[in-house]
Amino acid sequence: MRVVVVETEHPPAVGASLAREYAALADRLFVAGARAVERVKYPSLGDVDRADALVLGGSYAPWSVHDELALARLGTMVLQYDRPVLGICAGMQLLAQFAGGRLARASGGPVVGFTEIEVLHRDDLLAGLGDRAVVYQHHTDEVVELPPALRVLARSSACAVEVIADPVRRWW
After folding, report:
1. Residues near 68 by beta carbon (within 8 Å), at least 6 away in sequence
2. How far, CA to CA in Å, does 105 sit from each of 63, 108, 111, 159, 161?
3. Which of 45, 54, 101, 155 has the fewest beta carbons closer than 10 A?
């Protein structure tokens, strides 16, 4: 399986530490069974038709500093892509937005650290988890409007949309 990790961080914000995080993600995907893992910054993403799956990474930078045209181009590519897509953190927010959802600043302010999530559906991505799990999160924005095609798999007291899925599109 060939996986493309799309680095959705604002390019000037990618320092050595964040570059190591993306490299570690690519290594984990390779260990999990990917034959090849390619990392690409979203503004320079080219043809994704050769990829068996896409992974949209996170972003510490607020969406307001990102290149709107490059994000719109990414959205068009993801919507046309007909293979599995995993959105991690901000990548999940982008999937919601690409599908017609809406993002806004987190109502309670930035959320950073470990939090308990309530698992609502364990028949999908979260199979094997119990009713609750502790996860790390770091976000200043959140999904405030979810389109009907997407369903919430998990939520927390700080964020109503922690994990989503669209099994038809094969988005998680």
Report:
1. none
2. 10, 9, 11, 11, 13
3. 155
Which of 168, 162, 11 has the alpha carbon at shortest distance from 87? 162
pLDDT tens-digit map of 38-84: 999 999 898 888 899 999 998 888 888 889 999 999 999 999 999 99
Apex 19 CA angle, 66 and 51, nearest 5: 75
Largest CA distance in the chain: 41
Q: Find all residues with CB under 8 Å of 52, minimum gap 6, and list them.
A: 1, 2, 3, 83, 84
Confirm if 122 and 128 have CB atoms less than 8 A apart: yes
Q: What percent of the chain has pLDDT over 70?
A: 100
Predicted TM-score (pTM) of this structure: 0.92
Whole-angstrom CA distances from 6 to 59, 63, 111, 141 are 11, 16, 23, 19
Q: 120 with 162: CB under 8 angstroms?
A: no
